[in-house]
Amino acid sequence: MSLGVLNTLYIGKSKRVHYAVSAVPAALGAVIAVLSYLQFLPLSLILAVIYTLIMVSISASIAFLPKFKVSSMLEHLELRLPHLILRLRTLIMAGESPLEAFLSAASEVRSPILDYLIKQIALGVTPEEAISELQRALKNKPVLDTLKRIVLSLGMGEEAINYLKEEFDAIMAERESGLRKAIESLSVIVEMYMSIGVFFPVIAIVMLASLSILGSGFDINALIALLIFVAIPLFSAFSAIMAKKIVERALL
Amino acid sequence: MRRKINASISRKDLRILLLTLPAWAAVLYAVYLIVITKKGFSLYDPYEALGISFIIAVSLIPSALFEYKWEWETSRAEAEIPLILSALESGLRAGLSLPEALRESLKYSKYLRRDLVRVLNALAAGESIDSAIRYLRRETPLLAITADYLKVLAKGGEELFRTLKDFRESVEVIVGYTGKLKEATRSFLATVYMVLIVYLITTAIFLQTFLYPLAKESEKLTMLGRIDPLALTSLIIYGALIESILNGITTSYFTGSRYLSSLFHALILLFLSIMVYTVLLFTQVPPA
Q1: Which member of B174, B227, B239 has the closest CB to residue A212?
Q2: Shortest CA distance to A250 belongs to which of A168, A164, A180, A146?
Q3: How far apart are the first and last CA of chain B?
Q4: A119 contacts A4 by C-beta, under 8 angstroms
Q5: What separation in angstroms does the CA of B94 have from each of B38, B70, B109?
Q6: Which residues in chain A have their CB less than 8 angstroms from residue B167's CB?
Q7: ipTM
Q8: pLDDT tens figures, B230-288
Q9: Cα B40 to chain center, whole Å?
Q10: Helix (H, G, I), strand (E, B), or coil: what is residue A217?
Q11: Cβ–Cβ below 8 Å for A221 and B44
Q12: Which sequence spans correspond to the domains of chain A?
């Protein structure tokens, strides 16, 4: 099923065009590999394999980009659910009609998924239908189940306020248990970061410098420069991305 | 006649400007070395490495201070929302009007006080609450919801005042949760300090007690390979510079900071590194 919210994530707003474009770097890589193998290119086989692998990974990144974006959109929505519920409850308590309150609260969250829902509702689709459609397209994610429950509660009249309070408490309890898990995972990443990002460079510098006195076969300064200017930043970036992913799940 | 110039810069633009300052400063320093002193830039000169580290550290000060201040103010402002709501609730129950109750709640606010005073001044000047609430900051979802809640509160009657307790409790849950996250990740910061201090001590001892004396000895002993202590010292200083900044940034993510507030800690680590290597280089000149 093609949904507007998903189509915009593909290159040329079409799945076929997107996959065709994403295959181009891999095809180029394959051509380089074949030409090198047939010795039409002055590249060693190892270099040709490295180029091909880089090209294939570029292709894979482009191909999977929409999936990453969807996952990031769902994470953002999950992050903002407590705020959405709080705002929704406030507006309903202030006397706004539940649907109007939902539209107003959802527009404040600035989530592409909620924006899509708002658009569908404006086009006359019922909120339940719109969410079911999203569930079918995005493979029934738990956050969409929660969103569906919230939307269904809008038809409960006065009871919606109590229901939303319970939903808010349940989400916060879930978040707290998520926090404990996130801290455990983070401890492992922090230890890994400290060992590889800080202790390993110190040991490597000391060892390489000491050993270089005994032998004179390689450029020790270039090796240490590579470690300091390339390996450390790369590893730090990797750790920061991992930490961000884990902490974001526990953030509010 | 004097003309008043209204110049303002958004926080986002200021953040970009401040974060790129170290890069600009490093480029200017390189230009100074190449064009003005005609000395050229060498990656293996420890004194230039110290110079670059110092320039980057100094140019990082405004960014680190602003980030730390902004995050501190935002989190403090969020933390005082339940107190303000509680005071508001008491005031409204006592029969005060919303502006009067808001004025009473000023006693419990420090970081939102300026915004609340602006709101009250706007109300006193005859603005509607809908318009006056624009003076309340909306940097985080919680602050934005609170501002919107006050708008809603102004529209409602006595019935709505009863919702205050409910709203305050929910806000308390969110604020309490954010506090728990900060508490739980605080130990990571201590670990970052510890490991960088280990880096500094290990490399300083290694250079002073092992590498420099050995470099002098290796000149006499032909069977030993040649080592360049200046180049190695320079690389170790760059290593400390990169470790300090990256540790600061990575810690921001580890501690769940919204912005790069841990740059403040990066700066402390950076100045600590500069101090250690300055003492090392100026007390024992490495053999050339």
Answers
A1: B227
A2: A180
A3: 64
A4: yes
A5: 76, 35, 20
A6: 86, 89-90
A7: 0.75
A8: 888 999 999 999 988 888 888 888 877 766 777 888 889 899 999 999 998 888 776 66
A9: 34
A10: coil
A11: yes
A12: 4-157, 174-250
